[in-house]
Amino acid sequence: MHAVHTSAGFGQELRRRRLEAGLTLADLAGTVHYSKAQLSKVERGLKAPSRELARLCDAALEADGALVALLPGRPAGARAPETNSDDEEVWVMQLSADGPSWFQPVGRRQVIAAGAASAVRLGLPGVPGGGPGALPEAGGGKLLEAARALFDQHRRLGQTVGPEFLLPGLIAQTHSLRALSARAGSRTRQGLLGLGSRYAEYVGWLVQETGDEQGALWWTQRAVDLAAAGGDRDLAGYAMVRRALVTLYREDAEQTVALARQAQDGALPPRIRGLAAQREAQGHAIAGDRTACMRSLDRARDLLARHTPDSDAPVIGTMHLPDPVSMITGWCLHDLGRPREAAAVMDEQLAKVPPHALRTRVRYGVRRALAHAAAGEIDHACALTTELLDGAAAVNSATITADLRRLARVLGRHPRNPSVRALAPALGTALEAISFGPVGCRPWWEWLSGWCRTSCGSCSSGWCRRRRRGPKA
To answer: Number of C-alpha atoms within 13 angstroms, CB side, residue 400?
Structure first.
C-alpha cells in the first residue's frame, strides 16, 4: 500500500511539473527516452518509477531534486561490524585450485579449544617454541622497501585480473607485516604497521569487488586499527570515504554524504579531504541536488590540487585517473539525469586513461556507455559495450557488474533495435559469467537471443508481456 501511495504522489507531481513546463507526454518521453505509455502509467500511479527515470525527469523539468526526493528510501545495508580485536588474532584461510577459497578471522579462544599443539609443531610466530627472534633495526629499511615494491606490483596486477587471484597473496602479506611488526624496533614497526594498513585497505576494496560489503567493512576497520597502532590517525578519515563507497552503490544518498563529510576535517591531509569531497558530490548527485554536487566538486578540485605527493607512501585512492575530478563530474552528471553532458565529459576523460589500466577503463567505460544509452544513442552505446565485455570478464568486479546490469536494463527498453539484438547474446553470456548474487527470472537478453523458453512474463524488459510469447525456436 505504501508503494502505491509513493507512486501516486510521484506521478501527480510529475504531471503537475510537466504541464507547468508546457510539455506533452510525447515531448517528455522524447527528452528522457522512455516510452509515452510508460510515462503515462507512472503519472497515473499505476507503475512505480525507477530511480533512473526519476532523475531524468527531474533534470528535464528542472526540479532540482524535488522529484528524486519523492522516491522511497533505500533499506539500510551492512554497517561496520562491532568487533573485539583482542579476540581476532588468528586468521584462517583455505586455498583451493578447483573450488572456492575462503578467509575467516578466528578468536584465539577458538584456536586454543581446537588445540594449539599443532601450531607449535609448525613453528608459527606468536606461539611459544616457534618463530624467529627480534628483527635487526639495520635491515628494517630494506624490508619496508621490498614490501612496498610488492604492494605496488599487486596494485598494478589488480588492474588486469579479478580479486579472487589477488586476495590470497594480499591477505598473507598483510598478516606477515602484522607479525613482523611485533618483532621490529620502534621505527621499523611504525613503517610495517603503516604499510600493513594500506594492504588491509586495498584488501577491503577488493573484497567489495567480490560483492561482500560486510567483509569490505571488516577489512577497512582492520586497516584503521593497523594504522592507529603505527601512529597514523589519518587513515581513519579515508575509511569514511571507503564506507561511503559502499553506501553509494546502495544508492543511499544521505549516508553517503554524511560519511564523506566526516572525512573532511581540516586536520586531515588535503588528498583525503579532496577524495571525500568527491564522494560527497556523488552522494548529492544521486539525491538530485546539482548545486551541492557542483559545489563539492569544486572543493575537491581545490583540495586535490594542494596535495604534495609522498614518494615514501603508497598513493591513497585512484592511481590511474589523470584528472579524477573531471571523471567524477561525468559520473555525477549522469546520476543528475544529464546523460548527454556526462557522455561528453567521459569521452574526453577516458582518452587520457593509460591502456594498461584495464579495470579503470572498464569501470568508467561502462559508465560512459550507460550515459550514451540513457541519452538515446543506442547504437553507439552498443558499440562501446561490445569493446568492454572481455575486460569486464577479466577484472570480475561486482561494482562494475552493477553498472553493466543497469546498462542492460536501459538497452532492454529498445528490443527492436538491431544493435541491441546483435549485442544481446554476448552481453548475456558476459553477465552470467560474472554474475554476483542470486539470479532472478530469465533476463531480457534471453528473449532477444531466443534462448528463453519459460514464458514467465516477468523479464526486466517486459518484452514477453508485449509480445505475449517468446521468439520462435
So the answer is: 32
For residues 169 and 155, give the distance between their C-alpha atoms in angstroms, rounded to a whole number.
12
C-alpha cell at 397: 568486479
| Mean pLDDT to the nearest integer, 439-449 | 43
CA–CA separation, 268 vs 460, rounded Å?
45
Architecture of domain 2-70: Orthogonal Bundle (1.10)
- Name every residue whose Cβ is closer than 8 Å to that of residue 68 and which is 6 or more positions away in sequence: 51, 54, 55, 58, 286, 287, 288
**Mean pLDDT value across residues 16-30:** 92
State which amino acid sits at residue 117.
Answer: A
Query: If you search the block for the grid coordinates 505504501, which residue do you land on?
Result: 2
Which cell numbers hold the place of 8?
A: 501516486
Least confident of 14-23, 121-130, 232-241, 319-328: 121-130
Give residue 310's pLDDT band: very low, low, confident or very high (50, 70, 90): confident
Whether 190 and 223 have beta carbons less than 8 Å apart is answered as no
- Beta-bridge mates of residue 93: 103
For residue 270, the number of C-alpha atoms closer than 13 Å in the C-beta half-sphere is 12
SS3 letters for the chain?
CHHHHHHHHHHHHHHHHHHHCCCCHHHHHHHHCCCHHHHHHHHCCCCCCCHHHHHHHHHHCCCCCCCHHHCCCCCCCCCCCCCCHHHCCEEEEECCCCCCCEEEEECHHHHHHHCCHHHHHHCCCCCCCCCCCCCCHHHHHHHHHHHHHHHHHHHHHCCCCCHHHHHHHHHHHHHHHHHHHCCCCHHHHHHHHHHHHHHHHHHHHHHHHCCCHHHHHHHHHHHHHHHHHCCCCHHHHHHHHHHHHHHHHCCCHHHHHHHHHHCCCCCCCHHHHHHHHHHHHHHHHHCCCHHHHHHHHHHHHHHHHCCCCCCCCCCCCCCCCCCHHHHHHHHHHHHCCCHHHHHHHHHHHHCCCCCCCHHHHHHHHHHHHHHHHHCCCHHHHHHHHHHHHHHHHHHCCHHHHHHHHHHHHHHCCCCCCHHHHHHHHHHHHHHHHCCCCCCCCCCHHHHHHCCCCCCCCCCCCCHHHHHCCCCCC
Cβ–Cβ < 8 Å for 377, 343: yes
How far is the first Cα of the chain from the last one, in angstroms, to the nearest whole number?
40
Residues 351-401 have pLDDT tens digits of 999 999 999 999 999 999 999 999 999 999 999 999 999 999 999 999 999
* pLDDT band at 73; cut points 50, 70, 90: confident
